[in-house]
Amino acid sequence: MDQPRRDSVNALKRAAATANGESRSQEIRTKMKNAMALIDQELIEHRDVYPYNEGRLTLEEICKRGGIGKVTLYGKKHRELKTQIDDWLSAIKERILKSRTEDSDTRVAEPAPRTWEEMYKEIGNAYAIDALRWREDRALREVADQRILELEALTADLNLALEGLRVQLSAFTDGRVVPLGSKKVGA
Fold first, then answer.
1. What would the pLDDT profile of 69-105 be if each residue is shown by its tens digit?
2. Domain residues for 132?
3. DSSP-assigned states of every residue in 95-154
4. Number of folded domains in the chain?
5. In a domain, 26, yes or no
């Protein structure tokens, strides 16, 4: 193939690649604009609370919703788009912050400072509660100690009865029955 024809073929390939790249770039811009519009609509519907990603709205979340990778926005062709998204995200975050401070039913009232009398009463109540718990624990411990003594006495009585039964059994069998594990003498 001669040089002028090769140059014209290469120029056609470059033009086709550029057109293809431009269409992909336009597709990415469209996806991101659609994602931003959808997110804006969801924020309006949910009173400026982002309903996904635990309420966090980030560049990564916008890219995920747009169906592209975050790295895509760092290419030369998409720097302007990234700047637009960053500006939009900043504006949205300011709007969310402003609406949260203006919305009276989502604000939590700060508790009023306590006086020394209230704190003194609170300490007295805590002391009284601890005293009642200590008395209750002491009573339970006394009941448990009494039960332990009863069980120890029962165990001693049962051990005496068991020893008496062993003596009766050995007299009845005349040495023919031996405890398990011992060797018979003379076998």
1. 888 888 888 888 899 999 999 998 888 888 777 654 5
2. 128-178
3. HHHHHHHH-TTTPPPPPPPPPHHHHHHHHHHHHHHHHHHHHHHHHHHHHHHHHHHHHHHH
4. 2
5. yes
